[in-house]
C-alpha cells in the first residue's frame, strides 16, 4: 500500500527559504508535530517510562532518519504514533536544546489539518488540552518554548498615535473586535501618571476581550496597573542582568542584532520582536534586515520571534516561512 498523499499545502521544503542552522553529526534532528483540532485544543502524548525523558508529556514526533526529508519524517512519525495523515501544516518554531546526554534540534510544525482519528498506536496515553492547560503538565525542558509559541497569537499590535483617550479607546476596540489578542501599550511623551491611567484603561478593555497587554515602560509599573507583562526596549534589555518579572508575567524584548538576541536569551524572554524587516514611512532611509536577515536571527533564537517593520497582515505567511511566530505592527494593525 502506498504512503499518504502529500497535500500541496504542506510543501515543507519550499517553506524554508535559506539553509537552516548548521548541524553537527552529534545533534539529533527531531520532527515535531503540534496537532491542533478545530476547537483549538492541542494533542499531547506521554513518553514511556524507559525512554529518554520518560514519563513526561510531549508533542508527538521523532528523529529524522538518514536520507529522509523533514516532511517524510513528520508524516511517518505521526502515522506510526497516532494513525493520522497530515494534510495541512505550517512552520511553528525551531529549537536547539542541550540535555546532559544529548543535543537536539526540534523542527516544530503546527498541524492544522489531518486525516484519521488520533489514538495512541503504541499504547501511549494521549490527551487534548487547551493551550493554557499545557503549562499544567510536565514536559521535557526543550518543549517549553513550543508551549509558549502555542499560547501566543499570530499578531502583536503596537499602539500608535491617537488624539485623546476617546480616540485611543476607539482604535483599541476596533482592533480587539477584529481579533487582536496581544497588545503592546507604547506611548511617547506621556508623563507617568497619565500613562498609568491610560494603561489601566487599556488593561480593562483588553481583558474584556481575553487579550493580553504588555507595557513598553518600566517593569515595576506592570503589577501596579494589572498588565500582563513588559516589553523591553533594546536599551532596557541591554541594561538588565536578570529577568525583570516572574514567570507569571510575559517578558518581551525589541531586538535588532545578534548581540541583543543573545541578551534576550540570557534573560529568558518569552518572545522577542526583530526589526526593521522592510522600509517604513517613518524611517524611509533606514537600513533594513530583509527577510533573510530576519531568518538568520530566528535560526539562533530559542523563543518565539515576531517580525516588525513595514509589515501588513498579508505578510503573515512570509513571516512563518522565515521562522517567525507572526507579525508585529503599528500602522498595519492600529491604523
Describe the structure.
The protein is of the alpha/beta class and 335 residues long. It has two domains: 8-143, Nucleoside Triphosphate Pyrophosphohydrolase; 155-334, TIM Barrel (Alpha-Beta Barrel), CATH 3.20.20. It is 27% helix and 25% strand. It is built from ten helices and 15 strands. The chain has helices at 70-82, 144-151, 165-177, 192-208, 221-225, 234-239, 258-266, 290-298, 316-321, 331-334, and strands at 27-35, 42-46, 57-58, 61-63, 85-98, 103-115, 126-129, 155-158, 182-185, 212-215, 229-232, 250-255, 271-274, 305-308, 326-329. Strands 8-9-10-11-12-13-14-15 form an eight-stranded parallel barrel. A four-stranded mixed beta sheet has the order 4-1-6-5, sandwiched between helices. A three-stranded antiparallel beta sheet has the order 3-2-7, with no helix packed on it. Helix 6 (234-239) links the parallel strand 11 (229-232) and strand 12. The longest helix has 17 residues, at 192-208. The radius of gyration is 21 Å and the shape is globular. The N and C termini lie far apart (54 Å).
Strand content: 25-35%
Count the domains: 2
Oligomer status = single chain
Following the backbone from N to C, one meets helices and strands in this order, namely: EEEEHEEEHEHEHEHEHEHEHEHEH
What general form does the structure show?
A: globular
Amino acid at each position: 500500500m502506498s504512503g499518504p498523499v502529500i497535500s500541496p499545502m504542506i510543501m515543507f521544503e519550499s517553506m524554508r527559504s535559506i539553509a537552516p542552522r548548521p548541524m553537527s553529526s552529534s545533534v539529533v534532528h527531531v520532527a515535531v508535530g503540534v496537532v491542533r483540532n478545530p476547537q483549538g485544543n492541542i494533542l499531547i502524548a506521554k513518553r514511556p517510562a524507559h525512554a529518554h525523558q520518560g514519563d513526561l508529556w510531549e508533542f508527538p514526533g521523532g528523529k529524522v532518519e538518514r536520507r529522509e526529508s523533514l516532511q517524510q519524517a513528520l508524516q511517518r512519525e505521526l502515522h506510526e504514533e497516532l494513525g493520522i495523515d497530515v494534510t495541512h501544516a505550517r512552520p511553528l518554531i525551531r529549537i536547539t536544546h542541550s540535555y546532559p546526554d544529548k543535543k537536539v534540534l526540534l523542527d516544530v510544525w503546527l498541524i492544522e489539518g489531518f486525516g484519521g482519528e488520533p489514538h495512541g498506536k503504541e499504547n501511549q496515553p494521549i490527551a487534548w488540552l487547551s493551550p493554557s492547560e499545557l503549562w499544567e503538565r510536565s514536559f521535557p525542558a526543550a518543549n517549553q518554548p513550543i508551549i509558549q509559541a502555542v499560547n501566543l497569537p499570530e499578531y502583536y499590535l503596537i499602539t500608535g498615535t491617537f488624539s485623546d483617550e476617546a480616540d485611543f479607546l476607539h482604535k483599541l476596540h476596533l482592533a480587539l473586535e477584529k481579533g487582536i489578542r496581544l497588545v503592546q501599550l507604547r506611548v511617547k511623551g506621556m508623563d507617568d501618571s497619565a500613562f498609568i491611567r491610560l494603561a489601566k484603561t487599556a488593561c480593562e478593555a483588553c481583558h474584556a476581550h481575553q487579550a493580553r497587554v504588555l507595557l513598553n515602560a518600566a517593569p515595576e509599573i506592570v503589577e501596579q496597573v494589572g498588565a500582563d507583562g513588559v516589553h523591553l526596549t533594546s536599551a532596557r534589555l541591554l541594561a538588565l542582568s536578570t529577568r525583570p518579572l516572574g514567570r507569571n508575567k510575559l517578558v518581551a524584548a525589541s531586538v535588532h542584532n545578534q548581540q541583543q538576541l543573545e541578551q534576550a536569551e540570557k534573560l529568558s524572554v518569552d518572545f522577542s520582536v526583530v526589526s526593521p524587516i522592510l522600509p517604513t514611512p517613518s524611517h524611509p532611509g533606514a537600513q533594513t534586515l530583509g527577510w533573510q536577515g530576519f531568518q538568520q536571527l530566528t535560526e539562533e533564537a530559542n523563543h518565539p520571534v515576531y517580525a516588525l517593520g513595514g509589515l501588513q497582515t498579508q505578510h503573515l505567511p512570509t513571516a512563518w516561512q522565515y521562522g517567525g511566530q507572526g507579525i508585529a505592527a503599528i500602522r498595519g494593525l492600529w491604523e
